[in-house]
Amino acid sequence: MSEVKVVSEIAASVWKIQANPGDRVEEGDVILILESMKMEIPVTAPQAGTVQAILVREGETVEEDQHVATLAG
Amino acid sequence: MAAPAASLAALGPVLIANRGEIACRIAATCRRLGIPTVAVYSDADATALHVAAADDAERIGPAPPRESYLSIPAILDAARHAGARSVHPGYGFLSENADFAAACAAAGLVFIGPPAEAIRAMGGKAAARAVARGAGVPSVPGYDGENQSDAVLLAAAESVGFPVMIKAVAGGGGRGMRRVPDAAAFPAALEGARREAAAFGDTRVLVEKLVQRARHIEVQVFADRHGNVVHLGERDCTLQRRNQKLVEESPAPGMDAALREELGRRATALASAVGYVGAGTLEFVADADAPLAADRIWFIEMNTRLQVEHPVTEMVTGLDLVEWQLRVAAGEPLPLRQEQIRLDGHAVEARLCAEDPARGFLPSPGRLAALHLPEGLEGVRVDTGVRAGDLVTPFYDPLLAKVIAHAPTREAALDRLAEALRRCAAEGIRINAAFLAAALDSAEMRSGEVDTGFLERARTRLLLARAA
């Protein structure tokens, strides 16, 4: 089992968290939704796996390339 | 409602309840007229250009808009603290919030915009259609009745003819909207639209005939407190992406004097019907599959504020619309009568945004290390809200600046704007200038044969053109 880092592709604020630790996700499933410049940007699972950790909270701001969640794939 | 101020000077200080380029633009006219201004800023904007553009500034809260630019108590507190006597809402944020207009009036501040009742009367899609019916102005054929049973809605769709659109009465920004190709797809689309409509606290929907290839045409109106209403011609805002306008021009290609007069008549009738005061815009949809004609153009909604794209109207009329707003708010009659308003030449505006066309138009916040805007070119106007060194944050919309070109002909204005956009450059963030220049140079734009889906369909070609 490998650990997969999920990162934010842009600076944004965390609008909604859609997955919880322990959830099973498929590739492309939405883990959380960011909001930047009035646009909603989904952060999706790069591969199938289990959500190990969500590292941000709703309302928090994130930087580009920030590690926001970890999957066990 | 607060009594109208007796003179322009009595409006000052004007609190500008906005940020970015529009706050700077409002401050510029106030300065020219000798009226002091107060900027407001969130923690993300403490060193922003709009703060420097005003005479005074008040902090209104943290960066998220809900806690600052959208907070009515924070803005009223700032107005009280700064001793402001009027409030200009700009566009977006609280500009079309009837409660805000009413709260300003109740606090003894002159609201530089329409009365709260006029904002409410045009507030919902069904309400606007009802106003249009009363004023004898055609809306897109459809149904906006109170009976919301599935059978009645389906019958309405069949009566106007498929394809249709189902729209949430209270919706906005494309949410609660469904295109429905035929009767078989109707039940599922209705259920989806209602589910999204519930988020707006109102599950009512309306059914409209789908205009498959559409142009977006709008008419600028102005009304004063003395019963005068005029129009300042039209703008064509057909070049859009995801329902966001990117290029606007005036006059609209193919518009003749007779049709302009007819649309102007419809627009001023609608404004009069709701007791409108100040600057407003009536939006229409036109069928792009036929030449512009009175029976192929329908009213959709009213924007009860100054528009982002108002500079194209300023450039063809030679007028300052913010000055007109201030004069109307001060109780003066409109500066000109309809027959005194002249349209000269052609103007086109492009919206320069912090976004990356090559990455699917992803927003591009960041530190604006360097910025070059095409200032000082003949016939080119630049309205900017940023300067080199600014941090462009993720909290607000991506509009950085507007570039507007004016010339005697449409061809020359498009050339001038495309050239100006090719001279725009930014370091530290991505901007859409080259993409916009390619769109202006496209054969479709040059021949005026575009519809609201053009930019999306031609996207890859335009991205390649800009690299060439």
TrEMBL record, chain A:
It comes from the Bacteria. The keyword rRNA-binding does not apply. Pfam families: Biotin_lipoyl. SUPFAM superfamilies: Single hybrid motif. InterPro entries: Biotin_Carboxyl_Carrier/Decarb, Biotin_lipoyl, Single_hybrid_motif. Residues 1-72 form the Lipoyl-binding domain. Keywords: Biotin. CDD domains: biotinyl_domain (cd06850). PANTHER family: OXALOACETATE DECARBOXYLASE ALPHA CHAIN. This is Biotin/lipoyl-binding carrier protein. It comes from Roseomonas acroporae.
